[in-house]
UniProtKB/TrEMBL annotation:
Keywords: Lyase. This is Amidohydrolase family protein. The keyword Translocase does not apply. SUPFAM superfamilies: Metallo-dependent hydrolases (SSF51556). The keyword Transmembrane helix does not apply. Residues 9-333 form the Amidohydrolase-related domain. Pfam families: Amidohydro_2.
Amino acid sequence: MTPETPPTVDVHAHVLLPEVDALVAGLPGHAEARELDARRNGPAALAVSGPMVRERFPRLTDVTVRLAAMDAQGVDVQLVSPSPSHYHYWADEETAEKVYRLANEATAAHCSAAPERLRGLGLVPLQHPQQAVRALDHALAQGLLGVEVSSHAPGRELSDAAYEPFWSRAEETGALLFLHPFGCTLGERLDRWYLSNTVGQPTENAVALSHLIFSGVLDRHPGLRLLAAHGGGYLPTHIGRSDHAWSARSDAGAGCSHPPSSYLKRLYFDSLVHDPGVLRELVRVAGADRVLLGSDFPFDMGTEDPVGALRAARLPETDFHAVRGGNAAALLRKD
């Protein structure tokens, strides 16, 4: 590829790690977590999701199958993150350390089979903030570019002061943080029609990003490299309401120094919004240099044709190529 035609980079792709599933199977708390997840999704969703994952299992685990699928999509490079089902934020400290170490090492091994085409992210146990820096360092030591985190942990929002050392370390190392929610705390209100995902995921993105903005985390750590899945959820298209609250109410404006919309230009977003008009709006409010191609490979809530979905937004050609892969060149740098 020439500088004018950068490689096509998909920053939202997943790997399934059977080793992690085997590690946690039968442990205290695992069954309860699965039962909670089942209640929040509802039986109809589970009946569809099981066969869907089984059908996609080869693409999630076999590098040869993954590369063939990438070729069919016209994708040159994937940023591979563990399936969010591997977060296991219910786990105690000892189990949590085993989970993140195994997940980091297994993801690195998967990517090492095709190092020119696969880059990876690890995990950190957000339920144990005291382990977060150690887990991040472990991921980086495996050659991973950073870590994937959910929108919250039980009893803790991302604005919690306990995460300050983690943000500091991520900023210091230049690690990439991929914000990818798993589940939604609206619970059984979303337990039918797959609302747990269609409404829940963009809600969780918006809440998590709002905590990072309004609490001043992004003021204190301006060098954070944070990539939000699903186009940042509802926040970018409704950021005007946040700006209004920040200027109209002392309680809303007390924690951050600038209008909330200004922080969108400090964040990165994937392009997975399933609507060309919404994607154009995301590019408008965040900037064409802050949006990167994402597919949610290979799950059914992703897109089988990420480049085609991007082309449908009818962006200017320079913006199209920036989102398709140009922006990823700097964000996924090896140093």
